Inverse folding.
């Protein structure tokens, strides 16, 4: 028996005016942000994990960074974004938030920027950027997470495409979906991590480093 959307929504707490404005902005401008049930699950897990430092790969408009900073008042978040328009929007929204002192926005390609020089380690990494590059992001940033740290990876469903036969996937998306499948198979079998898939939102993969 499936759980109704209305019932799921009943567990989602109210958000402040800024967050509601950001959600509407994302909807109107087709900016991908985490679905509400998924981010509420993520935030609750983060409260239990209680990381003091988080690296976010893929800021978009800063929504997830602000949500995480509000849930974890003592956290320091470094978030990376390469799209100029999204950087400008993220900078504006973060500046208007009451957690701006907890967030550092880094401009540039997450595969090219030098994070380690200024931030040699993190308690957690949240990956929510180019889906076909997840393996590269993981390889690059997982060494910055110490034993017991956690990597959180969103969009593993890829809007339902990951669950289709490859012949059903649009041709322009097939390489990305193949890469996503390879990454999922690799990380689940990786003995250095305890990995679990949460079927919430667009699919959340959580990998705890041993």
């Amino acid at each position: 028996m499936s759980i109704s959307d209305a019932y799921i929504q009943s567990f989602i707490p109210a958000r402040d005016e800024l967050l509601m404005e950001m959600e509407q902005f994302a909807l109107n401008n087709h900016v991908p942000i985490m679905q509400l049930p998924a981010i509420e699950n993520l935030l609750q897990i983060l409260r239990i994990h209680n990381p003091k430092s988080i690296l976010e790969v893929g800021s978009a408009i800063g929504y997830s960074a602000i949500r995480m900073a509000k849930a974890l008042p003592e956290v320091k978040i470094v978030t990376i974004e390469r799209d100029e328009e999204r950087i400008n929007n993220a900078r504006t929204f973060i500046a208007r938030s009451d957690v701006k002192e907890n967030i550092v926005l880094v401009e540039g390609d997450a595969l090219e920027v030098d994070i380690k020089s200024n931030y040699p380690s993190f308690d957690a990494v949240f990956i929510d950027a180019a889906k076909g590059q997840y393996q590269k992001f993981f390889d690059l940033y997982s060494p910055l997470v110490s034993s017991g740290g956690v990597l959180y990876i969103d969009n593993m469903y890829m809007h339902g495409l990951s669950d289709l036969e490859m012949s059903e996937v649009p041709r322009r998306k097939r390489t990305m979906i193949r890469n996503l499948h390879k990454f999922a198979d690799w990380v689940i079998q990786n003995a250095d991590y305890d990995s679990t898939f949460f079927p919430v939102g667009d699919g959340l993969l959580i990998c705890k480093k041993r």
User: Anything to note?
Assistant: The radius of gyration is 17 Å. The chain has a mean pLDDT of 89. Helices lie at 5-9, 17-28, 36-49, 63-71, 84-96, 134-141, 171-189. The chain has seven helices and seven strands.
